[in-house]
Amino acid sequence: MDDSAYHPVPLDFERLAESEARARSEAYTRAMLKRRTVRDFSTQPVPMDLIENAITAANSAPSGANQQPWTFAVITDPALKAKIREAAETEERENYGRRMSDEWKAALAHLGTTWEKPHLTDAPVLIVVFAQSYGIAVDPAGTDTAQIKHYYVTESVGIAVGMLLSALHLAGLATLTHTPSPMGFLAEILHRPPNERAFVVIPVGYPADGTVVPTLTKKTLFDVMIRYDAAAPSGDEQAVTG
Ligand code: IYR
Questions:
Q1: Structural domain count, the chain
Q2: 101 in a domain, yes or no?
Q3: Burial level of 35, CB count in 10 A (0-12/13-18/19+)?
Q4: Is the Cβ atom of 212 under 6 angstroms away from ligand 1?
Q5: Percent residues over pLDDT 70 in the chain
Q6: Residue 201 C-alpha to ligand 1 middle, in angstroms?
Q7: What's the predicted TM-score (pTM) here?
Q8: How many Cβ atoms sit within 10 Å of the Cβ of residue 233?
Q9: I need a surface site. Which of 46, 50, 192, 225 has the fewest CB within 10 A?
Q10: Mean pLDDT over all residues of the chain?
Q11: Residue 235: which pLDDT band, with cuts at 50, 70 and 90?
Q12: In a domain? residue 181
């Protein structure tokens, strides 16, 4: 290890009383269980500081080698939103009409999605998250650039997007995680550099009046969590079996 690069500082950590930890944990879980993906947005604008705060939270996400390989493009310009909608719908018309298998369309049927994407123009804000496949270093004179290898880009950006969705939800905003496919048009329309590829489009705003959402259930904790505890001492009446 190159020790000259390692300059640790004391951890700023607040150990919570268990009761406080439990209260916060339950409040967070309760709030997150109310998150729903929304597809019908009001055109009402949202305060930009809420968007900035959420992106600041997302930008604190852990990432491979702390390279933070992401860019959050925040679009409020109606003309740009219209361009994105048109390009997304062109791709999605192909997807729903030809490219998606019957099996895929059957898997989506309960969500009620179609090729039409009015949320791309109705939502007051679109956040397009770009993943930086590699970094670009510019020399001090600003004349030369070099490519910097990035690590665990997909994992890092996925974690940051999860934190972004959580932060936006807790700020009282509705979101949609939209992945038009292919997404190449986004880098083009938004003039992103060659190291960036679109990862997801997130319309953000308030639900339109009368918004409905699909009936969905989530897997239970017992479906998704497997415990590996040490076996209880033999003869212990309290042994956990399930
Ligand atoms: N990208 C398309 C189709 C789609 C695919 C999945 I997997 C979804 O969970 C939802 C939609 C669209 O946005 O309509």
A1: 1
A2: yes
A3: middle
A4: no
A5: 96
A6: 12
A7: 0.94
A8: 8
A9: 225
A10: 95
A11: low
A12: yes
